[in-house]
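Supplementary Methods, section 5.1.

A reviewer requested that the exact input to the structure prediction be made available. We therefore reproduce it here, unchanged from the version used in the analyses.
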Amino acid sequence: MFSPGIYYLCSSALAWNSFLVKSIDELQKVQRRFTKRLPLMKHLTYCQRLSALQLESSELRRVRYDLTFAYKLIFRLVDTDLSTLFQLRESNTREHHYKLLFFLAAPV
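The structure derived from this sequence is encoded token-by-token as follows.
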């Protein structure tokens, strides 16, 4: 009953995906407080609340969204210039051809 609303309120990873530890911690605190205030959830640990509500932690959700987006970029499911973000590694070994090389600085 609560899941769709809770998931929407607790997951802002779709609209905003911070890489700052401080911001990530603040978002996690909001999710912890919100789930603790639900009926019958106060006595449970955070992990138990997430399990009972069938939610993922914001960290796991963020990693999953990042991996999904990387997959979409690699297989050209998103209309973005892949070369500005990273390049595919060409290999002469038996490895697959989808290894990524990241740029340390913006390409010139």
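Residues 10-15 have pLDDT under 50 and may be disordered. These observations are discussed further in the main text.
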